[in-house]
Amino acid sequence: MALLVQKYGGTSMGSVERIEHVAGKVALARERGHQIVVVVSAMSGETDRLIKLAKSMQARPNPRELDQMIATGEQISTALLAMALDKRGIQARSYLGSQVAIRTDQAYNKARIRSIDSERLLADCAAGIVPVVAGFQGVDDDGNITTLGRGGSDTTGVALAAALKADECQIYTDVDGVYTTDPRVEPRARRLDRITFEEMLELASLGSKVLQIRSVEFAGKYKVPLRVLSTFTDGPGTLITLEDNISMEEPLISGIAFARDEAQLTVAGVPDRPGIAAAILGPIGDANVEVDMIVQNVGADGTTDFTFTVNRSEHERAVEIANKVAQELKAKGVRSALDIVKVSLVGVGMRSHAGIAAKMFKTLAAEGINIKMISTSEIKISVVIEDKYLELAVRALHNAFELSESKGG
Amino acid sequence: MALLVQKYGGTSMGSVERIEHVAGKVALARERGHQIVVVVSAMSGETDRLIKLAKSMQARPNPRELDQMIATGEQISTALLAMALDKRGIQARSYLGSQVAIRTDQAYNKARIRSIDSERLLADCAAGIVPVVAGFQGVDDDGNITTLGRGGSDTTGVALAAALKADECQIYTDVDGVYTTDPRVEPRARRLDRITFEEMLELASLGSKVLQIRSVEFAGKYKVPLRVLSTFTDGPGTLITLEDNISMEEPLISGIAFARDEAQLTVAGVPDRPGIAAAILGPIGDANVEVDMIVQNVGADGTTDFTFTVNRSEHERAVEIANKVAQELKAKGVRSALDIVKVSLVGVGMRSHAGIAAKMFKTLAAEGINIKMISTSEIKISVVIEDKYLELAVRALHNAFELSESKGG
User: Which of A141, A155, B101, B237 is the most exposed place for a label (fewest CB within 10 A)?
Assistant: First the structure.
């Protein structure tokens, strides 16, 4: 018998019928002898509806009041799931963040969990009751409702699993696990049985929408075994786990991620002296534009080209600021490109294996793909290439690193 | 400077625009130097929508979960009003029942308020903040959300006014006060400036939908001055007050109420002996059929006719039960009538004045209206008549007791 926290997302809770299906999954897990604590998101579309309603009242809604309002989405879905379980003869009880003391700081709209009172939930489990906890929401020390930001229900699930010392936190979603890459780009993409927290973090930060990045951090920090699996199909999903558990035979590379929504800026011919990076990125950061990759090339004539990428939606604003900075620095000018994508190889295996980067670059060269920018971390190599080569690059790398169904696993 | 509790109903909170209008009314009261605590209902239609959603999940929704769910309606409208006030530069703060400790018993769906923590609200008022409190909801000793039943927001308003020792509890609705009778039946109906709690109770129990009956009881018990007034037009409304405050010149009769949804049953020729009433009404009550008027006539032959009225929707069930009882009692049979209405005169003045009943019966007789049943209380006389005479009876009585605009107050 294991204690499992099961988290169901908005799509899984999208209608009365789907919630009944979720109740069926909970019932099945109980029949297998497990104790279940459920965490749910709002029904799909509900949070957006509430935000829209709030904005029709106040263009920039008061943050406290916005949280008071959007927390109702999860409140409704917890009650509906508790009814669905009740209907099946399973004792269940819905809980709001405040009712199980999910204490957070007071940062409305993006609060962080500080503590959870596990006593009540454990007592329910012991009594055969299924607690259904509202994701995404908490309560501050003054009793104000807070929310955890987009995708915060994943974090609630992991935090509960940590507090309850659960055997596993299962994140049910509309995909059946984490894939070596996006199957829409490479049909031979393979579901991974396991992946490390660090790899998952890199994949999440690279645009894989499977899990909210904070929940992965949280799970890693508290060593909560995390499993991603589908509400709609049966299967083992992908287990996200500590590196120690990965067997030696695991492939070097876990997956290939990509991001289409980047833009590249180059401040050309800036004086090559200390403090240049700060002089350029300071004003960009002050304007709340997030910078992703940063590369600085040493030039021959005492000047250098400073290149970075930003989210495409912030491209115009970034160019504006960069132009101003370029003038002040007496740089040669600012170039920018929108027709770019970032492709990344991720894998803890590359730590202990040389030659991964070389193999990646060789593979791309063989396809005639020019690399415009390179950035590496311990377990990741990212390149920026022209966007028209995206699919070709992903498929070539997927093949070169033997990630496909037929060869891998 | 007065401390006022203002309660706005679902129609008043029916849209973003209407909520902005409510914010305007709150702003105006503040400009006049008053401290305001607001209580709001859910946006009109929202509670019904939620109940329907719950019933689509579970035919008879789990009562705890139903409350957890339908309490969200008020939660949303408090936040929206707080935003609307914020937008006008007025500091405001929404509160759920749990956040201001509106403690109730654990009777889900029909809970009763036990206590309210006024400290936080008074501190807000002192700091110039407008608290916006969710009506209809409370919290039990275990932190479960409870709701007070239909129209419970009125009760929240009155309970808050009592706890805060407010100068007045103002119930804003879509009518501009309490009328001598329904203006759709008698266009010369007049708005009453004042009415006593007892009269209001009788009117409410007789079908006047202006105020929830429990809120009137509550206000009477705690001596909270209660005022009914319109959100949509300006005007003083109707003050519901202790009898002591009514001046000697007040008319004898405050109003004429009527109920169209009654049905009359007669168990004819039952033995005239002790325990008959219980023998007949016991099974009716056991079947949860509510009985309104009861009359028993003494017969000459040692038998009696026993007549009572029930809600028209329960007529069939009542007849069924009455037939069974009649057989057991060896009564002559059961007669029933659906084409009846009840018309009632209400007024504390009738306590100290003889002849009101006689004048009522005389007035009806003059119009050729036959009285089928009579029932009286200290401040009310009700008669049952044929339904086709309803309008005629109301207008004749309204005129006879000089309730019209031109002659009265």
Answer: A141
